[in-house]
Amino acid sequence: MIKMPHSLTVAALSLTAFVAAPFAAASESCVQQAETIRTAQQNVLKLKAERDALVPKVEDAGDAWENNQAMRNFSTEQARQADSSRAAYEDLKARLRAVEADLQEKASNANARVNAYNTHCATKD
């Protein structure tokens, strides 16, 4: 469950990072900005790959939990198995949410850096 105060804190920090990124980028040289952008893009791609790898695992864990849940009432062992598979499913979902939030934040920051680079360094034709 996501609690509202935590969500507001994360949103405020994300907004601060998003607003601060262009100003920080403006003080860097264009070469430094380009290198930072490349690094940020690589980090975003790594997070995207991690997220993409997690999605089928979460779906499989959800299917396993549903299957075990259907058998829950037949024995205490099957009830334990259903509880265990649900816990694994919930853990994977939480991990996926965390990776997705990190991905969105890093992508937003990378986009802000690209925008700052384009504003200050890109040649105008």
Automatic annotation (TrEMBL):
Residues 1-26 form the signal peptide. The keyword Signal applies. This is DUF1090 family protein. Residues 82-113 form a coiled coil. It comes from the Bacteria. Keywords: Coiled coil, Signal.
